[in-house]
Write a structure and sequence with these properties.
With 570 residues, the chain is mainly beta. It has six helices and 35 strands.
Length: 570
């Protein structure tokens, strides 16, 4: 079934929208392509400036509640009461899952916020997204108009609670701990259930705050959603982020070029050439994690700066329907607010020691990398000019001087039956360079490697007689290669995965480092396999009641929601 869906969508992307809509009639739309829902597990619904909003993203099949493998991209928004987007996160999904965080800055106002989460496929139905109320408290502001202060009763902490599947149990080795003591959680797996879970351990406070949705009740958000064939179909992002754009000329003249070159400096795997349609629009897919958000766009074989390239906004929910409520803060919590704000500042002062470990994407080469004949110039005698380097080192490449005094970089055909007579495609640090004179005048000592593809290269709608790939020592596409006719813009890139800080007092000497963590553990990617499993962490210098919350789904689509409270005292 999924193979059939995949083929249909790949075909539809290249069809005109009117025809695609006729193919995807209402019956097919509703019955053949699985609808999706999103659940976010959050670490808290009330956060102070200086804290992190942590979340785990689950995309599930709306019918089976099993994790969805349809969408490969998820989106998360934080929206303020003025219906402005505070942040927009893009997530690369693996089996419907991902996670990230947002540090609450000191310039973010106190007030009521909403966090929204969705896949692009979900936006074909009105108001079809996950939403959760969030309260943010900024004690550093003089004017806190975003909150209401009054006398309200203190809320009580929760007790052990288990919802959803009953085959899983959660136990701790003790119920009372001292500061900086090891806590061991044991997950009892009575029937060898496989489950994808996220675990949060956080101190309980007495604030009146929005109730967090759990994996067992989040789908109440979607009960009133009706899937209908939309006027403008939004395709699911089954391979990556779909970026659309439009080209316009200053004189509204027809373009001589019907192709646009896509490049990300330093990103070898994302260079592309795509066609411009009759409406002067184009589209392309980003299917890898990027290390840069800079996008360079240029028309193929056109070197004038008399056009404009505009990226169209990615679809997002209609925010006009959102309603917000102000946080109500109890007057008796003033001392607690001061204490927590001070502790947060101390924690952030030691951020370098307690930093999370970020996993940056590994560089991915050109898809023809294995066929490249690569010359590492440090392995040869260095020459001062590029022309000398090609003559003396690059055996199967050559520089041809044209009648007007300019140059072309050429490649010798691997097939001895015919010599290439047209210029090669020149790529420098992941960016197509159309003016080969730029390379000729570049300092040869700044080049690390030169690679050659000695065969015809079908690059989107274009065909080249070989490819020359240049990697500079800096690897960041030097400024000298940038042209006025290249349009630079920034795009949203996917959030990088992290390993969140978790001190080990058994092995690390941290006695002189204060520990005022309120969030003791955040483990967003905990997989429970066919046996019992343990999770361990250490308490901080903070005393009080702490709550363990576990959310997620089993391999068969059953929700898991477990809670347990323990105490830390002297």
């Amino acid at each position: 079934m999924f193979k059939k869906i995949f083929i249909v969508f790949i075909a539809c992307i290249w069809l005109k929208s009117s025809y695609a809509q006729s193919v995807l009639n209402e019956e097919f739309f509703q019955k053949e392509i699985p609808a999706e829902q999103v659940y976010l597990h959050l670490n808290s619904s009330l956060l102070f400036s200086g804290e992190k909003l942590l979340y785990k993203f689950y995309a599930v099949n709306a019918e089976t509640q099993m994790l969805s493998s349809l969408s490969k991209v998820g989106w998360v928004l934080l929206v303020n009461s003025d219906k402005e987007v505070v942040f927009k996160h893009q997530l690369n999904l693996k089996q419907g899952q991902s996670y990230s965080d947002f540090f609450i800055p000191s310039d973010l106002k106190s007030g009521g916020y909403k966090i929204l989460a969705y896949t692009s496929w979900m936006l074909n139905a009105e108001n079809n997204y996950f939403q959760q109320d969030i309260h943010i408290l900024n004690p550093y502001q003089k004017d806190n108009e975003g909150i209401i202060v009054k006398d309200i009763p203190v809320s009580s902490s929760g007790e052990l609670k288990k919802e959803g599947i009953t085959d899983l149990g959660l136990n701790s080795n003790k119920n009372l701990y001292s500061t900086r003591e090891k806590v061991i959680l044991n997950f009892e797996n009575k029937t060898d259930v496989f489950a994808n879970l996220s675990v949060s351990v956080r101190r309980i406070d007495s604030f009146n705050k929005p109730k967090l949705l759990s994996s067992t009740n989040f789908n109440n958000l979607y009960k009133a959603i009706k899937w209908e064939t939309p006027k403008d179909l939004i395709f699911p992002e089954i391979r990556g982020v779909l970026i659309k754009g439009k080209v316009s000329s200053q004189d509204n003249l027809e373009f001589k070029s019907k192709e646009i070159i896509i490049s990300f400096p330093g990103e070898e795997s994302q260079v592309n050439i795509v066609s411009i349609d009759s409406k002067n629009e184009f589209s392309f897919i980003i299917n890898n994690n990027l290390r840069t958000n800079e996008l360079l766009l240029q028309l193929k074989d056109y070197f004038q700066n008399d056009y404009k390239i505009e990226l169209l906004p990615t679809p997002q929910p209609d925010l006009s329907f959102l309603d917000f409520s102000k946080p109500v803060i109890q007057t008796g919590l003033k001392d607690y607010i001061i204490e927590k704000s001070t502790n947060n500042q101390i924690e952030n002062a030691y951020a370098a020691i307690k930093s999370d470990r970020t996993f940056f994407p590994e560089p991915e080469g050109y898809f023809f990398n294995q066929e490249l004949l690569k010359y590492n110039l440090d392995d040869y005698t260095r020459f001062s000019s590029i022309i000398e380097t090609f003559v003396e080192v690059i055996e199967f490449g050559r520089v041809k001087k044209k009648a007007d005094g300019s140059y072309n970089i050429m490649v010798r055909n691997k097939n001895a039956n015919g010599e290439f007579t047209l210029p090669a495609l020149l790529i420098v640090d992941g960016v197509v360079v159309q003016d080969h004179d730029k390379l000729i005048s570049f300092e040869a000592e700044r080049i690390k490697t030169i690679g050659l593809l000695r065969s015809k290269y079908f690059f989107g709608p274009a065909v080249y007689e070989g490819v020359v790939v240049v990697e500079t020592k800096e690897g960041d596409f030097p400024q000298v290669f940038k042209e006025d006719f290249m349009e630079a813009t920034n795009i949203i890139t996917a959030q990088n995965t992290k390993k969140y800080y978790n001190p080990n007092y058994g092995n690390e000497d941290l006695i002189r480092i204060p520990d005022y963590r309120y969030q003791l553990l955040w483990e967003p990617s905990f997989n429970l396999a066919k046996k019992d499993k343990e999770v361990s962490f250490y308490t901080s210098d903070m005393m009080g009641d702490f709550e363990i919350i576990v959310e997620g789904f089993t391999g068969k689509g059953k929700p898991v929601s477990l809670k347990k409270v323990f105490k830390v005292a002297e």
